[in-house]
Specification:
heterodimer; A: about 260 residues; alpha/beta; six-stranded mixed sheet; three-stranded antiparallel sheet; about 35% helix; globular; B: about 290 residues; mainly alpha; 16 helices; about 75% helix; elongated
């Protein structure tokens, strides 16, 4: 089987500047305040994901999961190390897609699909399915800026799952949206997994990772601390604790994202 | 998975791999969507809508026409002065609009830049194309005015007009690339654009003629002649205004530098060089855009 994602010593640093104008920066310098923060979000992470694997990415808030996902998706470049992927990548990063708030939902579908690499006819072919799946009624013609956070992520998820991709990235998809929609998302994700696509799934909900993934990668403060069996990864992160005893009571526990 | 083994596997690539401006032109469909969307969105929720992109040059035109033409007496010294101003304004406004909108383009598209992998060069290029789109109706007005004032186009109209547009498309894109990424790091660059735009406006032979410049400015005239934007402006005036004056032959002799087309070629080459520098600058800082924006 071929590799889908290869990460070798991937490191991503952020230089966080506190000031956006020369004036503020000069004032801060004169007061002797720090003007830049260096922050190491992902530190020397290496792994290989095979095609068709579905891998959970776990860790506490701020452990570098979303940054790593951004590097995999191509939004960010690693400072050091290399990251290679095979095929088209689609998915949601950091709850909600990149939408243009002045544009209507429909226009955003075309735009997002084009960014994923679909052409006009490919988009038209899946347009009805996307609108059906998002199920946001007449809001589809309204500017996305007027959407609730739930509606935004419904539309984003609907677009992402209908792109014929090779690698599917899902970040906290269950954090927003009501229960019926979460259930629909899980079913769709399982379909994607069963169709042999590679999935990288970020979630804090241990039970949903157990249901979706056959491997987990755990991050702590940007470092990879565990790569392997799902249950053991969850145990290492102590995620099981909050589900005491009924860890595998799939239904509600799995759908509820403890964020 | 059977599908995956049947068709040849795509090769492993860095997902962020970008070939700069080349990848923009490889993804023309996405560029088209961004341009259409920008045309629709630039004056969205404003009562007069796209008319704003004509009101701005038109008000400038009337100010120059009245203050410079009537009060300062340019109508008497420059033949067919309104066309002199307007032909310069059309092309200079194309540049300033590209520069301004291009500089803001990446910050304006923050939500996309942070979450979707697409070459960030898309936004300044789209801003330039939107401004180019806005030039078209202004060109129509210019043509009508020229014809009404007795315009006899020649081959130089076509060559000079296209050369002027090419210089400013390239130069505008280059500066938009540099300033759009700089604006992500320092919002000051957004304000700087307004000042530079003013210099550009007065640094072109638009409200004054080349003849006046040559008489009064001495060696400073090279500041104008060495500026590709001013050269583009003169090429455009050569194409439209000069040929609508009473004595085109005399106008061409007295109101333009001796080797205008040579200067046009140099300006074009300089713009291309600037575009290459801009691409280098952009690629250098591009990787930090999503985290800094």
């Amino acid at each position: 089987m071929a590799e889908a994602i290869i990460a070798e010593n991937v490191t991503k640093d952020f230089v966080l500047r506190r000031h956006k104008t020369f004036k503020k920066m000069t004032v801060a310098k004169m007061r002797g305040q720090q003007t830049v923060d260096r922050f190491n979000a992902v530190n020397d992470v290496s792994f290989t994901i095979q095609q068709g694997e579905s891998v959970g990415l776990m860790g506490l808030n701020g452990s570098g999961k979303s940054t790593l996902l951004k590097v995999i998706s191509g939004v960010m470049k690693p400072n050091k190390g290399t990251l290679l992927t095979r095929g088209r990548i689609a998915g949601l990063i950091a709850t909600g897609a990149g939408f243009q708030s002045q544009l209507s939902g429909l226009e955003n579908i075309y735009l997002n699909a084009a960014i994923y690499g679909l052409n006009e006819s490919e988009t038209k072919a899946v347009l009805d399915e996307i609108i059906d799946f998002a199920d946001i009624g007449q809001f589809i013609d309204q500017p996305v800026g007027t959407y609730s956070s739930g509606m935004t992520s419904r539309l984003g998820f609907a677009i992402a799952v209908h792109v014929d991709c090779d690698i599917f990235l899902a970040d906290e998809i269950l954090a927003v949206g009501d229960k019926p929609f979460k259930r629909k998302c899980m079913t769709k994700m399982e379909q994607i997994r069963d169709s042999g696509k590679t999935i990288v799934y970020v979630s804090h909900a241990a039970a949903s990772v157990q249901a979706m993934c056959d491997r987990v990668i755990c991050l702590e403060k940007g470092r990879l601390i565990f790569d392997g069996d799902v249950d053991e990864g969850i145990r290492i992160l102590n995620y099981g604790d909050d589900n005491d005893g009924e860890e595998l009571a799939m239904d509600d526990a799995m759908l509820g994202a403890d964020v | 998975m059977s599908e995956a083994t049947a068709s040849p596997l795509p090769s492993m690539v860095a997902p962020s791999s970008s070939m700069g401006l080349l990848s923009v032109f490889k993804r023309r469909y996405l560029l088209k969507l961004l341009v259409q969307r920008e045309i629709a969105a630039r004056y969205e929720q404003s009562f007069l809508g796209f008319l704003w992109s004509y009101i701005n040059p038109l008000t400038q035109f009337f100010i120059y026409w009245y203050i410079m033409g009537t009060i300062m007496g340019a109508h008497k010294t420059i033949d067919n002065y309104p066309v002199h101003v307007f032909s310069g304004l059309v092309i200079v406004h194309f540049f300033t609009e590209t520069f301004g909108a291009g500089t803001r383009s990446i910050v304006r598209n923050k939500s996309l830049v942070q979450k979707m992998p697409l070459p960030a060069e898309m936004f300044p290029v789209a801003a330039m194309l939107v401004s180019l789109w806005h030039v078209l109706p202004q060109m129509a007005i210019l043509l009508v005015v020229c014809i009404l004032t007795g315009w006899h186009p020649d081959l130089g109209t076509l060559i000079g007009g296209l050369m002027a547009l090419a210089i400013l498309m390239i130069m505008g894109t280059a500066l938009a690339l540099i300033f759009s990424v700089a604006n992500v790091f320092w919002r000051d660059f957004g304000s700087l654009v307004g000042i530079l735009t003013n210099f550009v406006r007065f640094g072109c032979t638009m409200i004054y003629s080349y003849d006046m410049l040559a008489q009064h400015a001495g060696h400073l005239k090279w500041l104008v002649l060495g500026n590709p934007i001013a050269v583009a402006c003169m090429l455009f005036q050569r194409a439209f205004w000069a040929l609508s004056t009473d004595n085109p032959a005399q106008t061409l002799r007295t109101q333009f530098p001796a080797h205008l087309y040579h200067q046009g070629a140099i300006a074009l080459a300089a713009s291309i060089a600037l575009l290459l520098i801009a691409q280098w600058f952009f690629s250098k800082f591009e990787a930090r855009i999503p985290e800094q924006i």
